[in-house]
Amino acid sequence: MTAVDVSAVVPGPGRTVARTPRQEAWRRFKKDRLGLFFLAVVGVYVVIALWAACVGWGGSYEIAGQVRPAYEASMQQLGFELDGKPYPQTQTGPSTAGGSYTWLGTDKLGRSILYRGLQSTKVAFTVGTFGALLSVVIGMTLGLLAGLLGGWVDRVVVFLYSSLASIPYLLLMLAIAFVIRKGPFATRYDEWAPWGWDVSEAISLGLLNLVVVIGLTSWVTLCRLVRAEVFKVRELDYVNAARSLGFGTWRIAFRHVLPNVFHLVIINFSLTFVIAIKSEVILTFLGVGVDKEPSWGQTIAGANNELMVGFWWPLIVAGSLLFGLTLAVNYVGDALRDALDPKLKT
Amino acid sequence: MIQFVLRRILYAIPVLLVVALVTLFLFDIAAGDPAAIKLGKNPSPEAVAALHEKMGFNDPFLVKYGKFLWSTLTVDFGDSWSDDTPVRTVFKRGIIPTLSLTLPAFLLGTFVAVILALLVAFYRGSLLDKAMTVVAIAAISISSLVYILVFQAVLADAWKLFPVWGYEYGIGAINFIALPVLIWILLSIGTDMRYYRTVALEEISRDYVRTARSKGVSEHRVLFSHVLRNCLIPIVTRMAIIVPFLITGSFLLEIFFGIPGLGTVLYTAINNSDLPIIKAFTMLGTVLYVTFDIVADISYAALDPRVRLS
Fold it and tell me: Is B131 on the interface with A (CB under 8 A)?
């Protein structure tokens, strides 16, 4: 860390108004060129995810006209059939066949790697954003309440998270996933259609399951941090002032204390986002993740069988796309931490 | 000291009680009828009833809970559903292969991470430091499944540097664990290095370091005899917290490389809905976690005379 920058608090010539903390953080963030670059990368992924959300799943399910000849031959030898026909499909496939559709080749079933890879971004963002959002909301609320109210509320929250944290992470995730997917909830969810709107069509059970699992298992870190920070903040004069003005606990929590611990929330959101999309791969591999929509986890988990017959590119494409997003979010999260919480910078 | 340990142990008891409750509750809802797993597709109603009676399937929840607590206390989780071996035997079989993978991987990984962390802390702010930070972030951004699949396909399958699959007890294990150990280190080194770097930097900014420097002690010596010694406290504490994960093992590495350890046991149990094993695993993991959490606190106090336990 270099010399302390005082220009924000000491008005210099030509600058009479001090910057707000947010402007100050953005100014620090901008200095990190690599951070800006990766922020742009995240932006590109967001655009791709929005595109995927607009076009639906079309294309990624369809079979391209050009299935690899070597694979055709081997499948024919083994006597496999596809849709009741012997393997080499004579159909010409969708209109894009041979064009951009096969730019990065096709997988074992003849589906476009490029389309599937890009469309998986939607699942990644759904799981990442909503999983992290749920986790952050739980962690933040419980942390705020425990820190502000103290007493028995605090003891209950601490007990809750120390119990949760001591269960092996993977097993807890699996247990919740089992309950959601195989319990009575699953059948009811499939039939649930309020006002004729089929919910399970919009967000499949597999996706919902991942969001809930991530949300319920990963809020502990943030809760701990927020609680500790609130303990520090609540003794400050302005909180006492707010209290003496007769403001209620909720108002003090969300209007006065929360803005002072919000940097923790933002940083933790990016961390949980990454955990969520990496967990998607593992849980899908274990058979309790995404099963309907194309996702990187599905491609990577499926690559285990594909590698044996020489199909290495689906793994590389899905792995690289996943890598790009996690790297970008990880780096931006890191840069955000440095920008928002200069005390932490080492 | 003794009072502190006792209080921590007493505090751990309600945690374990709640975890047992949650485990039993979650898996009992999830599992459905054990008869469907044990007796195949079309069992006779008598056989189902007999099995339910034997397993206590129709017991009230509280009775089940009591039995489960007792089995945790006596470390006797009954028989596996899939092949009727006692759970305890299954665990005993798995522990050696698991530790033969995780222990060397962990020790080697920590060693490399600490050395690298001291190195980048020494050259803090330089290009090397920044480059290493980016490399570390990149390394932790790759999915563990991708690491395993790519390394197995390239290093073992294509280049034949390592065996692809299998395990051997005794000294021959080295052959089979080499590649999994390498992958484990790559998977953990990014996080570890960054953690130890922060620890080292915190120490470097302390007064005694400045004093040592002003006395003319070489930077090299400052780093390795002053800073490293003080860093040992957080290093050891962190190591103690990781021990439970060494025992439960890495199920991905084990199943992909055919190591018959506890990770494989867990994976098979999940695939077969083998509840006694899954439940035992959860409780074992929790007990280990709670125990080593206490051990970490004690070692912290034992190593650092400034820390008082209260």
Answer: no
